């Protein structure tokens, strides 16, 4: 993660002054379908300013009460526009938690991560994990294979935050099948 470091840092991060950098290792990782997901929070003023924009509500931020918790800047965008993958394809998700306040308990419903690289480190690898915390300011690389066609929601398992928008769907679609013809999700959570 990179972010603005000028005081007040929390205000700058809460206003979107952050992003993700991926540094590939000298020996390439195996080929995979890759996605970058940056989780963050928005603490909005109750009314729009003179320009018609919401501004940061400092008190909401300080009381840890976000209006939205999102992936890549928009609430639930990948729930309504799923990320398409193939069944049994290696899927690699670079997950960064920009915060500024909430831990992400990253999880793919119906999937088990083959590997989780904590903070992207090749020397700190967990295998067979279903949910992993990504601290504020931290990141991880998550690798999963979705064995059957269907929809596999990904969320922060802190469900108040998922309800506020930190939710999306990986849609596993077999070759030759259209995304709209994908079968409904078979798993329950």
Question: Would you kindly provide a written description of the structure presented here, covering whatever features stand out?
Answer:
The structure is a single chain. This protein has helices at 9-14, 58-62, 77-80, 159-163; strands at residues 2-3, 18-19, 33-42, 68-71, 81-85, 90-99, 104-108, 115-118, 125-126, 131-134, 139-145, 150-156, 167-172. The chain has one domain: Immunoglobulin-like (Sandwich). The chain is built from four helices and 13 strands. The chain is mainly beta and 189 residues long.
Silhouette: globular
Strand content: 35-45%
| Class of secondary structure makeup | mainly beta
Q: What is the total number of structural domains?
A: 1
Outline the fold blueprint.
Blueprint: E1 2-3, H1 9-14, E2 18-19, E3 33-42, H2 58-62, E4 68-71, H3 77-80, E5 81-85, E6 90-99, E7 104-108, E8 115-118, E9 125-126, E10 131-134, E11 139-145, E12 150-156, H4 159-163, E13 167-172
Question: Care to give the gist of this entry?
Answer:
The chain has helices spanning 9-14, 58-62, 77-80, 159-163, and strands at 2-3, 18-19, 33-42, 68-71, 81-85, 90-99, 104-108, 115-118, 125-126, 131-134, 139-145, 150-156, 167-172.
């Amino acid at each position: 993660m990179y972010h603005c470091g000028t005081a007040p840092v929390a205000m700058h991060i809460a206003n979107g002054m952050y992003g993700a950098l991926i540094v590939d290792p000298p020996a390439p990782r195996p080929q995979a379908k890759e996605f970058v997901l940056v989780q963050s929070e928005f603490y909005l003023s109750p009314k729009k300013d003179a320009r018609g924009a919401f501004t940061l509500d400092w008190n909401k931020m300080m009381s840890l009460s976000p209006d939205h918790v999102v992936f890549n800047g928009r609430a639930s965008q990948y729930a309504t526009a799923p990320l398409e993958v193939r069944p049994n394809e290696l899927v690699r998700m670079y997950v960064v938690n920009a915060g500024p306040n909430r831990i992400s308990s990253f999880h793919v419903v119906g999937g088990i991560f083959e590997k989780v690289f904590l903070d992207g480190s090749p020397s700190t690898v967990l295998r067979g994990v279903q949910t992993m915390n990504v601290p504020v300011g931290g990141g991880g690389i998550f690798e999963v294979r979705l064995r059957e066609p269907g929809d596999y929601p990904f969320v922060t398992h802190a469900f108040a935050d998922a309800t506020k928008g930190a939710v999306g769907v990986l849609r596993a679609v077999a070759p030759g099948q259209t995304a709209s013809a994908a079968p409904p999700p078979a798993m329950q959570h």
